[in-house]
Amino acid sequence: MIKNRKFIKEKNGYTLIELMLAISIFSIAVSICVNMFINAIKLQRSAIAVQNVSDNGRYIMEIIAREIRTGKVNSFILNGTDDLSFQSNSPNRAGNTLKFYLSLSGDQLMFDDNTADALEALSVTATNNVVVTFLRFEIQNSTKQPRITIFLNVQSKNPPVDSQDEIYLQTTISPRELRQ
């Protein structure tokens, strides 16, 4: 005999609506996380490019400034706005003529110290990272010491998308006489 039995429905699984809702919430959360990760990588690449440009710009200015400080006071010659030559007063250069100029391709700063062991000029910039977009030298002559002003623009060779990675630098340097 069958008595009045109440059938108890046991819930053994999820309904289709519950599954679709869970999958959509999970996919939204994953897409937000992936988007944040991609943006973090883009920002890191941009920061690295800006750091490379900044480091190379400061390095270029330091190399030029160090050599100009040891130059002979009355030997500075401009061979165009982006070409400076002068005679070194440094003991290790033995009075050689030094030259800083923009390369023929117009994107690298070149240095020629006119020594026998160096057959050609060397690039001061990191050729695979940055390019020099602008270089200009100005000489302000005074009665005792000239002042050389350097204007320099450096930017990343292969900039990341949406990255402003150009740096403008300017400095003025006076040579100093080294007493021996």
Low-pLDDT residue intervals, each spanning 5 or more residues: none
Q: Tell me the number of helical segments per DSSP (H or I, 4 or more residues long).
A: 1
What does the overall shape look like?
rod-shaped
Strand neighbour order, sheet with most strands: 1-2-3-4-5
Radius of gyration: 32 Å
* Helix/strand class: alpha+beta
Strand element count: 8
Mean pLDDT over all positions = 83
Question: What is the terminal separation in angstroms?
Answer: 124 Å
Determine the fraction of residues in helical runs and give it as a percent range.
25-40%
Strand coverage percent: 25-35%
* Main beta sheet strand tally, sense and closure: 5 strands, antiparallel
Order of helices and strands: HEEEEEEEE
In short:
With 180 residues, this protein is of the alpha+beta class. It is built from one helix and eight strands, in the order H-E-E-E-E-E-E-E-E. Strand 6 and strand 7 (147-156) form a beta hairpin.
What's the layout of helices and strands?
Elements lengths: L15 H54 L7 E2 L4 E5 L9 E6 L6 E4 L9 E2 L6 E11 L6 E10 L9 E8 L7
Antiparallel strand pairs: 1-2, 2-3, 3-4, 4-5, 6-7, 7-8
